[in-house]
Amino acid sequence: MKNGSLRKNILLLSILLATILVISSIPLHAQTYSVSETLEVSHEGTVHVKVEILVAEPGIFTLNVTLHEAPEGLLVYDENNMPLNYEVSESKINVFMVNNTKAYIEYLSRTLTRKEGPVWTISFTFNDGPVNIVLPQGTSILDIIGTPKAIKETEDGRLIITFEPGEISVDYALPILTATPMPTTSPITPTETPAPMPIPYNYLPWIIGGGLLLVVLVVISKFRR
After folding, report:
1. Given this model, what pLDDT does residue 218 score?
2. Which residues, other chains included, contact 174 with Cβ-Cβ below 8 Å and sequence gap of 6+?
3. What is the mean pLDDT of each run of 10 residues along the chain (225 residues)?
4. Number of H helices, E strands in the chain
5. Of the candidates 68, 75, 49, 44, which has an alpha carbon nearest to the alpha carbon of residue 134?
6. 94 exposed, middle or buried (CB, 10 Å; 0-12, 13-18, 19+)?
7. pTM exceeds 0.90
8. Who contacts 134 (Cβ-Cβ below 8 Å, separation ≥6)?
9. Are 63 and 103 in contact (CB under 8 A)?
10. Residues 153, 137: contact at Cβ < 8 Å?
11. CA-CA-CA-CA dihedral for 109, 110, 112, 114, to nearest 10
């Protein structure tokens, strides 16, 4: 009887441990965390991607989030800026959480945008949560594919489009940069040469005569001595 009871307890304990392991390896249920993605587009078409994950029920589990193609400089960290362990599998990233309330995924992507003539296009698919696209200052939106929830302009003139999850595409045009005109300067007027003083020719004979008379008087005075 004792051996049978011991075997039964060992079996129950094994089942319990196996259940705990299975539960801990299953990704967190969608209702206990939320995902949002922000894509900030530069003038050159490079996109800074930042995914924010808010966890409602912290625990030990794995998050599975969409990863866009060819990520560069991948960073994964928690609410305290501490790095988190992760694995990349094709177009997904698995983030291992241990009692964290937030997780962030950041990277650069050069494959989300393309250009044809003056028209730029950013297109991708993201089904994990809402998406914010931040376009450069002065951008004009030409076409939108997807379900935009809101479009607003920041104080510095950038456009932010918020989308529902799904397939997203935006055609846009950047402002034309014009060269700054050089400041105009007034033409330099050459300095006028002052006119020479006129010579009083009408007094010239009197001046010469007076000079000669003075010379004669000086000579006569010397002879008298």
Report:
1. 62
2. 43, 118, 120, 136, 138, 139
3. 62 63 48 89 96 92 92 96 94 94 96 96 96 95 93 92 96 76 57 55 59 64 61
4. 2, 14
5. 49
6. middle
7. no
8. 38, 39, 40, 41, 154, 158, 159, 160
9. yes
10. no
11. 170
pLDDT score at 32? 84
Token output for 176: 């034309």
How far is Cα 57 from Cα 28, in angstroms, rounded to an integer?
Answer: 9
- β-strand pairing of 47-55 with 166-173: unpaired
The 10 Å Cβ neighbour count of residue 73 is 8
State how far the Cα of 9 lies from the Cα of 18, in Å rounded to an integer: 14
Please give the pLDDT value at position 143: 95
pLDDT at 175: 86
- Expressed in angstroms, the distance from the first to the final Cα of the chain is 175
d(CA 183, CA 98) in angstroms, rounded, equals 62
For position 74, what pLDDT does the model report? Answer: 97
pLDDT value of residue 176: 78
d(CA 108, CA 114): 15
What confidence score (pLDDT) does residue 31 get? Answer: 46
Predicted pLDDT at 29? 45
Read off the tokens for 135: 């376009």
User: Distance between CA 96 and CA 105 in Å, rounded?
Assistant: 12
Residue 140 C-alpha from the chain's centroid: 17
Q: What are the tokens at 192?
A: 């006028």
